[in-house]
């Protein structure tokens, strides 16, 4: 007997609410395109003239981290493997606290627009800057592909709307308001989308809990099914999820988020360094709350389908675990027009916020690291127009990457982490080497980054191609004894439950060995959990860079420009007595750093004032030429 799918889809009210969300987001972009300075200068377009208010920038930072991956993949992760994934939020909190001691004191005083500009200042080398730019751009394109993939997959699961049409819809909307409205449009649409996201999440949790029999029933089902498996202290790095990988591995992995161009732009968009620190201190706990809500959705979804006696994965009603939440939403809200549309609007909002942040950050990188480097005499206005056009180009490339990702099997959260970590690990290693190792040179930085990237790409390639890696078994799925045929209203009796239970692939590679077989040789290396990939990339890069600098020959300590490095022990271990810390720096003159930075800021301010005067004179000349009829 074949399963007859229940008819699901959008009502008129759903389409109205969904369309309004997209229209308002575009409207905010149009508004900022015609207000203020009309996004004609790089400072306004990319960093909001560095005078944005802390509250909207903080909300924007929070939701830029919370893409559709969080909205769909995290509930799917909990549904499939249990709530242990929640521990990554602790890693994120520690990472943001570290950022207040690393990224903010390093970047904010320099008043830069592109994070890769720091690399040129640090090494006086365009080559190192270009290396960072290339890797950062590759990372953003890969991540945008996954961000676009999530909601498109979700809406395809429950409506007749084609996957490719959703991809085009999301990318087009984000490109339009990002290109014309700049960072101000991105930040204020993020604020609006944040409200939509939280409204949708709370609606799902409340209604899903009620339909499952109440909070106690949800908890009881989670306990009985083994999904409240929060702690596993196994030190084995090949185990998919352990406390150490989820917390320690995530701290190292998520430090990269604080070095991302999108984060740096928000750090530079607020006027005071103290405001940037407050923003990060708020973002960490806020992410803990939002991730907890996402994980709760996974528990509620499992309880709901268990109560109804028809698990959609076991019954093959859906193709992938990432579709389970939207599938539930269209069931619990089928008698409430508009609510399914609200949830899908929340999912799309999550993607729009992240996608627009990435597009704007890549526009900043394009303008500062490519256009202005290739065309030294280009006007600020022309460079800004070129940056806006680059948003369209990156939107097209994001669609191409999404199409490439579409046929890969697995849960989005794991796939996105594995693929992006292969790039982000070496980038983070490059920045940490540059910030805390004063004797790093441009050669050692390039060598360390290339070695780190090569080793970690080898790891991810081996994980993808190896046929003998162990499979991490998912937790038992729910019952299917109440899966009815809509036409006959009879029980489904011909399911082979054993085949259904593990018929979908949730690992990153095929498995042809028994679960108790130990990997041998290189497979032991390939078996390392995806949570440690970024940490290995950082380690390989830093260690290789240090070794390369020693072989090359260390520069004299008193010749190091301390404006662009931080005192490691002062920033991370300030409780160590000062006289001991001073000795540990081996003669590097960190005591001069504040004075040198103050002089740097004064020269920078003088340069900015000269540029403003030149622009004013050019504008006056332009006006006079119009008046005289020469234009």
Architecture overview:
The chain has 631 residues and is mostly helical. The chain has two domains: 15-407, Up-down Bundle (Sodium/glucose cotransporter), CATH 1.20.1730.10; 558-631. It has helices spanning 12-33, 42-47, 54-64, 68-81, 88-101, 103-107, 117-123, 126-158, 163-212, 215-224, 243-259, 261-269, 273-308, 324-332, 339-374, 380-405, 412-436, 442-465, 497-501, 522-526, 533-552, 568-572, 578-584, 593-627. Helix 5 packs antiparallel against helix 13 (273-308) and helix 10 (215-224) packs across helix 13.
In short:
The chain has 631 residues and is an all-alpha fold.
| Cα Rg | 26 Å
Largest sheet: none
Low-confidence stretches: 1-7, 485-516, 621-631
Tally of individual domains? 2
Secondary structure category: mainly alpha
CATH superfamily of the largest domain: Sodium/glucose cotransporter
CATH architecture of the largest domain: Up-down Bundle
- Tell me, what's the shape? globular
Mean pLDDT, rounded to whole units? 79
What fraction, in percent, of the residue positions are helical? 55-70%
Classified by CATH, the class of the largest domain is Mainly Alpha
Give me the oligomer status. Answer: single chain
| Count of helical regions | 24
For this structure, the CATH topology of the largest domain is Sodium/glucose cotransporter
**Number of DSSP strands?**
0
What order do the SSEs take from the amino end to the carboxyl end, as H and E? HHHHHHHHHHHHHHHHHHHHHHHH
